[in-house]
Amino acid sequence: MTKTLWQSPAMVLLIAAAVVCGTAATAQTQQAPKVQAAKPQAAKPQQAQKKPAAKAEPTEQAVLLGQFGDWGAYTATPDGKKVCFALAKPTSAVTDPAGRPRDPSYAFVSTRPAEKVKNEVSVIVGYKQKIGHDAAASIGSANYPMYTQDDGAWIKNAAEEAQMVDTMRKGADLVIKSVSIKDTKTTDTYSLKGLSQALDKVAEECK
């Protein structure tokens, strides 16, 4: 079912509490990420300057289903509702000006059966983003603008989400560019190695 971003139900931002990507052996020995929910303001993008809803405290420990290349597949049950997601850290994170501090960044592809949401693409960029300024996602020659709120970003045109996921499955890298409220420009590059297998595991777990 096609949905616009501002009509979508509560979106789950899945924030890792520790480094969770790398080799399968390394990932198995590290703490799985905790789940933190955030609900962007139910408003159209041009109203995004309104303060977003407060984030809930992380209470749910995610379970690693498997590590596939650079992507981990996880499941959790925040508020009793099952969630499955593929998660990766960037293989390269560049700031302009160089050396600007920020929190860790992550990319997610999430499935929430209770909300009839499948393969929702989102990113955490590690800082509050410039209000009214879209982030940009690219896979090879394919480009997708992303709606931003606080430190999260989602594909702006939800009708393109399935196409974006299919392109990610076939691509080599996902590049996310964003601008902070302090005008710091960032470019995060995510390897897409293992994403297809991670998404297949997510689909198997969250049918």
The CATH class is Mainly Beta
| SS content category | mainly beta
What is the chain-wise order of helices and strands?
Answer: EHEEEEEEEEEEEHEEH
Rounded to the nearest angstrom, the distance between the terminal CA atoms is 16 Å
Helix content: 10-25%
Rg value:
16 Å
Individual helix count: 3
Q: Give the strand order of the largest sheet, numbering strands 1, 2, ... along the chain.
A: 4-5-6-8-9-12-11-10-13-14-7
The CATH topology is given as Immunoglobulin-like
CATH hierarchy: architecture: Sandwich
Shape: globular
Mean of all residue-level pLDDT scores: 78
Assembly state here? single chain
| Strand composition percent | 35-45%
Structurally, how many domains make up the residues? 1
The biggest beta sheet reads: 11 strands, antiparallel
Low-confidence stretches: 1-32, 36-59
Written overview of the protein:
Helix content is 13%, strand content 37%. The strands form 2 sheets. The chain has an 11-stranded antiparallel sheet. A 3-stranded antiparallel sheet has the order 1-2-3, with no helix packed on it. The protein has 3 helices and 14 strands. The N terminus is likely disordered. The chain is mostly beta strands and 207 residues long. It has one domain: Immunoglobulin-like.
Which descriptors apply to this entry?
single chain, Immunoglobulin-like, 3-stranded antiparallel sheet, 207 residues, 11-stranded antiparallel sheet
Give the structure's gist in a few sentences.
This protein has a single domain (5-205), classed as Immunoglobulin-like, CATH 2.60.40.
